[in-house]
TrEMBL record:
UniProt xrefs under InterPro entries: DUF5947
Protein name: DUF5947 family protein
Pfam family, one: DUF5947
Gene source species: Streptomyces gibsoniae
Source organism, top-level taxon: Bacteria
Length: 196
């Protein structure tokens, strides 16, 4: 390695901020407002820099290992989710390509998951036809009826997992403490303010 090449490597390493968020595909630094990809095999949300996200411009495409997470957020009228058997007022539901629907409940330990009843999901969709257009794996029905709230959204899964992180970060004791529900309320207020 020449001294010029070595100097470039050292400068490049010095320019990299260790605390910066990185693209999970190429390692480039990502900035506020970056896009996310959903890795279907691991069911994981990954950060993507602009060049990598451009590779997956067909939002909601149903094939491939990586799927671009859409930015669509739609506030819905109240949706009757009682038939889905949700024991708490904060949850999100993701439809998959095989027509299964997974329910995710945020908790201090992360998201608890179970498969929702298919007939019950069809009933929910018949009551709210907009849900028939949910992009598989990358969009969800996001529900907050805890503590008197009445929030129902079609939301990207990265927003849903961000809500799970809020619950994990703010939860205290057995009931959640005094910080978790105001933080959840703030999350939904910010959701309404975000650009589409």
């Amino acid at each position: 390695m020449t001294s010029g090449a070595l100097a470039r490597v050292i400068r490049s390493a010095a320019d990299r901020r260790p605390d910066a968020e990185r693209c999970d595909l190429c390692g480039a630094e990502v900035f506020s407002g970056h896009r996310h990809l959903f890795e279907t095999g691991r069911e994981a949300v990954l950060c993507a820099c602009r060049p990598c996200s451009v590779l997956f411009v067909e939002e909601g495409a149903s094939e491939g290992r990586y799927r671009l997470v859409p930015r669509r957020r739609v506030r819905l009228p109240p949706v009757d989710t009682q038939g889905l058997g949700v024991p708490v007022g904060l949850a999100f539901f993701v439809r998959h390509a095989d027509d299964t629907v997974t329910a995710h409940l945020p908790s201090p330990a992360g998201a608890t998951r179970w498969e929702a009843d298919r007939a019950a999901w069809r009933d929910v969709v018949s009551g709210c036809p907009q849900l028939a257009g949910l992009a598989t794996d990358v969009e969800a029905l996001l529900v907050n009826t805890a503590h008197g709230a009445r929030e129902h959204w079609i939301a990207p899964v990265d927003d849903c997992f961000r809500m799970v992180a809020v619950v994990r970060r703010e939860w205290r004791g057995l009931s959640g403490g005094s910080r978790v529900w105001p933080a959840v309320g703030q999350f939904f207020a910010e959701l309404a303010e975000q650009p589409q």
